[in-house]
Amino acid sequence: MPMPSLIFSLDISPQEYQRYYKGVGKTVLAVADDGRTLEFPASRLTRFVSHSGVQGRFEIVFDTSNKFVRLQRL
After folding, report:
1. Owning domain of residue 43
2. Which CATH number goes with the domain that contains 37?
């Protein structure tokens, strides 16, 4: 049985991501392609940060208890 997942896009500028890095913002809010809103810790994005911030299409995967499993760039 496949695990539940949501697909979404992010476009976070370097300046905006700095706020997360400094602890001002701890969670990221995004709207999935199906219209659902999701919220997850900004720390999950660390490996995707570049000099231009965080941009792209992502998939977040949950287990059947809605616990985080992984986040990947598509």
Report:
1. 5-73
2. 2.40.50
- pTM, two decimals, is 0.87
**Alpha-carbon 56 to chain mean position:** 10
pLDDT tens digits, one per residue of 6-57: 999 999 999 888 887 777 778 999 999 999 999 999 989 989 999 999 999 9
Helix (H, G, I), strand (E, B) or coil at 41: strand
CB 58 within 8 A of CB 73: yes
As a whole number of angstroms, the distance between CA 55 and CA 22 comes to 19
Domains in the chain, number: 1
